[in-house]
Design brief:
By secondary structure, the chain is α/β, with parallel strands linked by helices. The protein has 2 domains: 285 residues, Aminopeptidase; 111 residues, Alpha-Beta Plaits. Helix content is 38%, strand content 23%. The chain has 11 helices and 16 strands. It has an 8-stranded mixed β-sheet with strand order 1-2-4-3-5-16-6-15, sandwiched between helices. Strands 10-12-8-13 form a 4-stranded antiparallel β-sheet, with helices on one face. Helix 3 links the parallel strand 3 and strand 4. Helix 1 packs antiparallel against helix 3. The longest helix has 27 residues. It is elongated.
């Protein structure tokens, strides 16, 4: 059924989106200057809801749902992440964060762009109702996406697809990647405490040194990736913290380390969980120590729906962004939880300049340009339209006809 979505009316969505961009850029700067880390996003939620001025549902898990369009029938979800990172910002813009947190992963841009899309569809009408997912805790556990997905409020909206867009400095500015299949890794956190026998550094034979055991363990854990995993399967094991001892001449009682494991295959994910535990216990035992291992499951593999990716990519390209080569990385995103309940698509939009020293994601100097708000919003709107066609059966004008109207 074509309804009344003529090429002119469809193109009008994008001209309407352009009218929203000045306010969206101002919102982005306001969000950037007042970041909130995961679990403390209530003020961010309030700012977004005040800007939208629409009916909404606050979630007990944090965040909110905003439905745009008809109150009945299936909907297309659009995810925007609320949280910042505990990073001290090192940029010099007047609207920088001056506290202990920073939007160093582009979530400020994502939120502002999603608000612009929602306001555009509210004004112009939506082929299929849009469900704006203002999602908490993307950067920390417990996962905000998992909680939101399992909430009764989300389930009540008959969500047929979820789309999201993420900035990616490894892609050139103005380019995008909508790649079918696995595009992000599963990411699981672990903590290992090596317990030894403390004592005087002059008498090491009377101690069980957890520092030496931990040092050996860190190196050995790396061999799990190089010798236990098919080298054609992307896998990364990183030790991010290590701490132990308070004096230069004392063998401490314990050393604590934490890290993260990133995998693309469920079988290897399970095998490596077991191998981390076995290795920690074995290496600690060699030095007369013991090991305590805790593993916390994080987001699973982010698996983009291939059909939705193809349809959305055509819409995004004809809306003006340039297609890039397929993009996959060992990064992780809890958007993957939506992929297991309905066709879902994460699109990457480039902010790369080609500079070898350009700050990347989670860097204290990461600061996407204001133009990225419009590019992300364009990709969001086009991906939403692709979902309307792919999973909701809405008959929209073809991309070739549509593109002539957008660009004239």
């Amino acid at each position: 059924m074509r309804l009344d979505w003529t090429p002119d009316r469809l193109a009008g969505l994008f001209s309407g989106l352009a009218e929203q961009l000045p306010d969206a850029i101002a919102l982005r700067r306001a969000l950037h200057s007042a970041p909130r880390v995961g679990g403390d996003e209530s003020e961010t939620t309030r700012m977004l809801l005040d800007t939208l001025g629409m009916e909404h549902e606050l979630l007990s898990e944090g965040g909110a749902l905003v439905r745009v369009g008809s109150a009945v029938g299936p909907a297309i979800g659009l995810r925007a992440e609320l949280d910042a990172l505990p990073i001290v910002e090192r940029t010099d813009v007047s609207w920088r964060s001056r506290g202990e947190a920073m939007h160093a992963c582009g979530h400020d841009v994502h939120m502002a762009a999603a608000v612009a899309v929602a306001r555009t569809l509210q004004t112009a009408g939506a082929p299929v109702p849009l469900l704006l997912l203002l999602q908490p805790r993307e950067e920390v556990l417990p996962s905000g996406a998992l909680d939101l997905r399992e909430s009764p409020a989300f389930k009540a909206h008959d969500v047929r697809a979820v789309v999201g867009v993420h900035l990616q400095p490894r892609l050139a500015q103005g380019h995008f990647a909508a790649t079918g299949g696995a595009v992000n890794a599963a990411a699981d956190q672990f903590t290992i405490v090596v317990h030894g026998q403390p004592g005087h550094a002059a008498y090491p034979h009377l101690t069980a040194d957890p520092v030496v055991a931990a040092a050996d363990l860190i190196g050995t854990l790396q061999h799990l990736v190089s010798r236990r995993v098919d080298p054609t399967n992307p896998t990364v094991l990183t030790i991010g913290t290590i701490e132990g001892g308070k004096s230069h001449n004392v063998v401490p009682a314990a050393v604590r380390m934490s890290g993260i494991l990133r995998t693309f295959h469920e079988e290897e994910r399970t095998q490596l969980h077991r191998a981390i535990k076995d290795t920690a216990h074995a290496i600690a035992g060699v030095y007369g120590c013991t090991a305590e291992v805790q593993l916390s499951l994080g987001a699973p593999v982010l698996d983009n729906d291939p059909t939705l990716a193809t349809t959305a990519a055509a819409r995004i390209e004809h809306a003006g962004l340039v297609p890039a080569a397929p993009h996959r990385s060992c990064g992780a995103d809890d958007f993957s939880y939506y992929c297991s309940v309905c066709p879902s698509l994460m699109v990457f939009v480039g902010v790369g300049t080609g500079g070898v020293d350009q700050p990347g994601l989670h860097h204290p100097r990461f600061l996407p340009p204001d133009d990225s708000v419009g590019e992300v919003a364009t990709a969001m709107l086009a991906a939403y339209l692709g979902a309307c066609e792919t999973v909701a059966g809405v008959d929209l004008p073809g991309t070739e006809v549509f593109s002539r109207h957008v660009r004239r």
